[in-house]
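ok new one. same drill as before - structure tokens go in, u give me an amino acid for every spot. 528 of them this time. try not to just spam alanines like last time pls lmao
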């Protein structure tokens, strides 16, 4: 009976995972593409310096959002546990702590913006843009405040896996925000009006999230009197380790923008931002689909489905590795024409940023599933050690590489460190959780080989493919180069798979394994 129930649980979770991931990916994917399309409008209307300011302060808001003491992950974990039969009182207490933490973080952000503005203006060479940049920064902080206060209700929807509702709310408000920003820019609005449109979008998103969570899951909401000392201790013990991981993520993902803004001029920062936004398209699938994996993995941990969790982890890693190999190969071989297609003219620093960041981004994408699983198992310290080490190494390498290679040395340091630390993280995660490394290596080798071969072949024949000045020729170059790279990755994976199947079929133990499998199947059918 137990053997019959276990596959049923795993199958149900896997089916729900695919369904929820598809809904969330479709809703957010449209919004992400709309956001990418809006960037050329902003770049053309604002100019390099103003766009550099916009990229700088939206990046600072992103950094502030990661400094949440790990309460975001703690809330989702508590809600997911309560949804699987856990204690609802604890979930309501954690949600209340999340609301209080969000309010405190919001107040701190406002105070730092007001008190530290003169230092910020000098640090990032704002000059004559300081006045309107200050107003825009304050309005962006207001939007951040609203998003922080709505986090408990977002956690309720994520933890209970109401991803259809969450997808409609987040995707719809993202489209609304993109439309407001584009219309404001086309109407000649400056930084302040753009920031006001972002704050208005955050207000709409916060209101809809609260209403949706109260309507879908009325029993889970922040309740202050449910907070106990034990709740505070357990949440902080878990959250601080997640926060350390988030701090490492800040250093690895957002620090490049801040370093370039401090050491170089705003046009250089603007070019880097353009290239990094295109590279971040690689993160679209995991950033939209992997939040679905966390509550599903937490549910498997609660149900004791360790084998099902391992299968889910390896299957997700295989999909991410194939996606990352194809995406990184396409970006590497079509970086320059992609920038020309996007903006209508070459932006050298943007194309160089794509070439340098794409491999590191692909490597980090592959490790996302392992990070989600280790958090679901209640051991975020495994990830924390690696992200903190990565942050330290990144900061140590940035200055020497920046002096040696100029602005491009900043993202180069990130790629080198992320690649090395990801290898270490996989080894540490598998050793600490008593998982074998052989299945992981078996999973990752084919995409790595196929991606490297695709890039080499496409670069070799790139001179013979269509290209030229203008957006039309750039579009042809992107289609031919990127399409060829993706096709070669797919063919390479297929060939490697066929070779493995042939090798497995002719191995000495193949016949014995088939006989043992058939014998086991016959034995299981004979049991009453």
């Amino acid at each position: 009976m137990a053997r019959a129930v276990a596959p049923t649980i795993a199958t149900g979770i896997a089916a729900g995972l695919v369904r929820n991931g598809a809904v969330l990916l479709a809703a957010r994917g449209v919004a992400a593409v709309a956001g990418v399309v809006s960037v050329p409008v902003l770049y053309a209307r604002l100019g390099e310096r103003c766009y550099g300011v916009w990229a700088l302060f939206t990046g600072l808001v992103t950094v502030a959002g990661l400094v949440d003491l790990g309460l975001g992950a703690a809330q989702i974990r508590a809600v997911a546990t309560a949804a699987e039969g856990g204690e609802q009182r604890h979930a309501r207490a954690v949600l209340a702590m999340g609301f209080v933490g969000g309010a405190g973080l919001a107040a701190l952000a406002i105070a730092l913006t007001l008190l530290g503005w003169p230092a910020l203006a000098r640090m990032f060479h704002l000059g004559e843009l300081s006045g309107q940049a200050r107003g825009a920064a304050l309005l962006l902080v207001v939007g951040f405040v609203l998003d922080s206060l709505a986090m408990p209700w977002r956690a309720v929807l994520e933890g209970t896996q109401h991803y259809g509702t969450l997808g409609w709310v987040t995707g719809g408000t993202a489209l609304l925000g993109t439309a407001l920003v584009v219309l404001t820019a086309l109407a000649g609005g400056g930084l302040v009006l753009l920031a006001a449109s972002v704050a208005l979008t955050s207000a709409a998103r916060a209101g809809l999230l609260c209403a949706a969570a109260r309507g879908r899951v009325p029993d889970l909401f922040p309740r202050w009197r449910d907070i106990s000392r034990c709740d505070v201790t357990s949440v902080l013990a878990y959250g601080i380790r997640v926060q350390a991981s988030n701090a490492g993520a800040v250093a690895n993902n957002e620090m490049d923008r801040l370093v370039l803004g401090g050491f170089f001029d705003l046009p250089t920062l603007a070019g880097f931002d353009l290239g990094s936004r295109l590279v971040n398209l690689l993160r679209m699938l995991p950033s939209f689909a992997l939040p679905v994996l966390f509550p599903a993995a937490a549910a498997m941990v609660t149900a004791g489905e360790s084998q099902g969790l391992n299968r889910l982890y390896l299957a997700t890693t295989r999909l991410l590795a194939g996606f990352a190999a194809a995406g990184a190969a396409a970006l590497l071989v079509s970086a320059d024409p992609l920038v020309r297609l996007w903006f209508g003219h070459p932006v050298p620093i943007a194309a160089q940023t794509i070439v340098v960041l794409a491999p590191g981004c692909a490597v980090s994408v592959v490790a996302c599933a392992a990070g989600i699983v280790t958090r679901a198992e209640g051991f975020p310290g495994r990830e924390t050690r690696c992200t903190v080490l990565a942050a330290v190494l990144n900061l140590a390498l940035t200055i020497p590489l920046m002096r040696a290679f100029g602005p491009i040395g900043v993202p180069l340091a990130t790629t080198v460190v992320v690649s090395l630390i990801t290898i270490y993280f996989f080894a540490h995660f598998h050793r600490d959780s008593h998982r074998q490394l052989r299945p992981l290596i078996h999973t990752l080798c084919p995409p790595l080989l196929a991606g490297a071969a695709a890039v080499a072949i496409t670069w070799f024949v790139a001179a013979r493919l269509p290209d030229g000045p203008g957006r039309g020729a750039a579009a042809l170059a992107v289609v031919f180069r990127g399409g060829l790279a993706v096709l070669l990755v797919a063919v390479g994976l297929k060939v490697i798979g066929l070779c493995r199947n042939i090798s497995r079929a002719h191995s000495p133990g193949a016949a014995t394994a088939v006989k043992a499998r058939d014998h086991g199947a016959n034995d299981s059918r004979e049991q009453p």
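Residues 2-66 form the longest helix (65 residues). and btw Residues 1-11, 510-528 have pLDDT under 50 and may be disordered.
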